[in-house]
């Protein structure tokens, strides 16, 4: 079996809010002095809150049902195909569960304090490898699990960063990505799970790019390898495992473009991959390794291909396209390349494509604007059965709001898409602009309990734009914010504010911005440039200074980020990065700010939050600060997310909702 989900820096931008009225303040300076001494901890000392007022009990009661919505994601079929393994949360974090029939009982198999990451089941066995880190530090370790007994043990060294596990077809070994050689290089290793101490380095990454295994050929003598330099420069290599020879087959010296290997065809004649060599979009293609010929399979589809799966016997394939953020599913004949669109799939975002061991069924994780992710199974007659029914906190999903796709014109004439969620009652409504991270990511209309909560409880409209630099709209669009054009994406937010001002059902005098990671930078930059048009801003694990960020982010990802943001070692680029960094322009920020951070964040270090908070305080600005000592790049533990969401609601009640 080979399945592939497009490599991307998928970043969860946590968001939140609520409703109330602001209390009168006798003096802004008095308020600042009071806040400076207001530090307390929650959740056994793991959550530090500075300058955040006590959260009223009514807010927790308001949010309780929204905060107890669950989801379920497909991970694997069992070896006999009769059951599935999923990840879902019944306690504080997501764990592995087994479901033996459609709509059946979810049997929990793991019980860790940390969430379980990726899962790769051993062929012809139910034994699986799963990944798990500690405290959100993203230094994931590999664990071998026997689902029948629950026994597990660590296979990796306990120190390096590991993942991207790909089993050989006979299940005797697996390839994986690891930084164990020097702590920074993203190398490829091969391990026999019964002899983990004898793991072999097979690709020593020669530079700062990311290298990972994708698929073994039919006799496990060769390995498809991806090398990720940047979102517009992705290369495919083929490794002769026995000889150690690594051969570049797509991209790089052959032309700079994005090429993602997917799977070898079982007849050994070549492999499937996606590429933007022949179009502005990512197309599905097949390379014949004997003749060298490339055939583009989806040449008549003007959207990105973003998921692909091939059955174990090689007779069935399937893929999805990303059409304006929504998924469309296709079946594919791997030999003739004949394809057919599958009807009857719920309108939403599809992932986790995996064929059953016998190739007769296809598992899908489906998320719709009105329902959280659940697992479905499609049979050979295209009949869809729902296998999991995740709880929605007792809420009526019919009351949930579906987004409207709108497009607005930016400062230079560029058309920018955005999804708009509006309350059902009459406006004008206060507005929350939610900005995704990445930046090479894309807001897609996933179900969001947070957005539904804002709309239903706060009466706020939520707008999620895909500013320039977002994925999903072609290679040219994704490159429009690179290097010295970084602030052009911030200008897109200015154009969105203009659009809001033209909409009678939206209140342009009450607008807040919220975003995580790169979206956090966008929040800070928006506050720098548009404080006169904003009422509040929430920065979650955001970049406050590009130079300090590039200096302090973990070694294994520094060169990857330089490819996107620019190399701070170049004097001209360094001067530009310093000039656009929000921490150097704090005097221009004139809106209340809520900064949210995880102490163990390896991507955007805690120092990025600390320096912006310190600078804001030094300039006598209103700033709330929350830091989770047991989290990393975003909050994964429910107890921390709950408090964060409640505090965000209180923040919006105080600074966004009150009318003049």
Automatic annotation (TrEMBL):
Keyword annotations from UniProtKB, A to Z: Hydrolase, Protease, Serine protease, Signal
InterPro entries found in the cross-reference section: 6-blade_b-propeller_TolB-like, AB_hydrolase_fold, Peptidase_S9_cat, WD40
Signal peptide range in chain numbering: 1-24
Positions of the Peptidase S9 prolyl oligopeptidase catalytic domain: 446-656
Signal among keywords: yes
Gene Ontology molecular function: serine-type endopeptidase activity
Example of a GO biological process term: proteolysis
PANTHER family: DIPEPTIDYL PEPTIDASE FAMILY MEMBER 6, SERINE PEPTIDASE S9 FAMILY MEMBER
Designated name of the protein: S9 family peptidase
Lineage: Bacteria, Pseudomonadati, Pseudomonadota, Gammaproteobacteria, Alteromonadales
């Amino acid at each position: 079996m080979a399945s592939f989900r497009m490599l991307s820096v998928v970043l969860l931008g946590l968001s939140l809010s609520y409703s109330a009225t602001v209390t009168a303040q006798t003096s802004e300076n008095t308020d600042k002095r009071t806040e400076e001494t207001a530090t307390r901890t929650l959740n056994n000392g793991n959550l530090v809150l500075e300058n955040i007022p006590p959260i009223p009990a009514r807010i927790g009661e308001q949010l309780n049902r929204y905060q107890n919505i669950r989801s379920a994601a497909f991970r694997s079929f069992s070896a006999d195909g009769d059951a599935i393994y999923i990840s879902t949360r019944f306690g504080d974090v997501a764990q592995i569960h087994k479901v033996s029939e459609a709509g059946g009982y979810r049997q929990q198999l793991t019980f860790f304090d940390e969430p379980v990451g990726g899962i790769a089941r051993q062929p012809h066995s139910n034994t699986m490898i799963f990944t798990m880190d500690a405290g959100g530090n993203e230094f994931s370790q590999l664990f071998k699990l026997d689902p029948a007994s629950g026994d597990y043990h660590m296979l990796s060294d306990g120190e390096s960063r590991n993942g991207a596990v790909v089993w050989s077809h006979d299940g005797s070994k697996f390839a994986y990505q690891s930084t164990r050689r020097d702590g920074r290089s993203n190398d490829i290793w091969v391990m026999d799970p019964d002899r983990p101490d004898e793991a072999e380095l097979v690709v020593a990454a020669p530079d700062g790019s990311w290298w990972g295994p994708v698929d073994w050929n039919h006799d496990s003598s060769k390995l498809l390898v991806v090398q990720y330099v940047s979102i517009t420069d992705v290369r495919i290599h083929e490794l002769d495992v026995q000889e150690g020879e690594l051969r570049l087959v797509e991209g790089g010296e052959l032309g700079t473009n994005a090429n993602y290997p997917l799977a070898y065809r079982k007849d050994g004649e070549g492999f499937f991959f996606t590429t933007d060599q022949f179009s502005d979009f990512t197309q599905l293609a097949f390379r014949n390794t004997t003749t060298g010929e490339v055939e583009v399979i989806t040449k008549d589809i003007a959207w990105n291909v973003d998921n692909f799966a091939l059955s174990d016997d090689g007779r069935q394939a399937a893929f999805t396209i990303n059409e304006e953020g929504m998924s469309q599913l296709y079946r594919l004949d791997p030999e003739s390349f004949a394809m057919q669109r599958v009807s009857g799939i719920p309108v939403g975002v599809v992932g986790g494509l995996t064929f059953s061991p016998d190739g007769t069924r296809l598992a899908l994780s489906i998320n719709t604007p009105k329902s959280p992710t659940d697992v479905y199974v499609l049979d050979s007659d295209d009949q869809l059965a729902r296998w999991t029914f995740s709880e929605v906190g007792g809420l009526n999903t019919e009351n949930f709001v579906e987004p409207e796709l709108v497009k607005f014109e930016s400062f230079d004439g560029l058309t920018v898409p955005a999804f708009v969620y509006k309350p059902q009652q009459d406006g004008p409504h206060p507005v929350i602009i939610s900005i995704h991270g990445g930046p090479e990511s894309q807001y897609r209309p996933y179900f969001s309990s947070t957005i539904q909560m804002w709309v239903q409880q706060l009466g706020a409209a939520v707008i999620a734009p895909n500013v320039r630099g977002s994925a999903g709209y072609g290679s040219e669009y994704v490159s429009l914010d690179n290097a010295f054009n970084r602030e052009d994406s911030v200008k897109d937010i200015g154009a969105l504010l203009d659009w809001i001002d033209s909409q009678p059902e939206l209140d342009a005098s009450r607008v807040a911005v919220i975003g995580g990671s790169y979206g956090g930078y966008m929040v800070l930059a928006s506050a720098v440039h548009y404080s006169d048009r904003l009422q509040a801003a929430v920065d979650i694990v955001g970049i406050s200074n590009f130079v300090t960020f590039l200096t302090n982010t973990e070694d294994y990802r520094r060169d990857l980020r330089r490819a996107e943001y620019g190399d701070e070692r170049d004097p001209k680029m360094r001067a530009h990065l310093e000039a656009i960094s929000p921490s150097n322009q704090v005097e221009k920020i004139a809106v209340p700010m809520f900064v949210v951070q995880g102490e163990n964040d390896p991507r955007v270090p805690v120092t990025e939050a600390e320096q912006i908070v310190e600078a804001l305080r030094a300039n006598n600005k209103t700033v709330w600060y929350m830091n989770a000592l047991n989290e990393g790049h975003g909050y994964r533990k429910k107890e921390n997310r709950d408090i964060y969401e409640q505090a965000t609601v209180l923040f919006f009640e105080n600074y966004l909702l009150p009318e003049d």
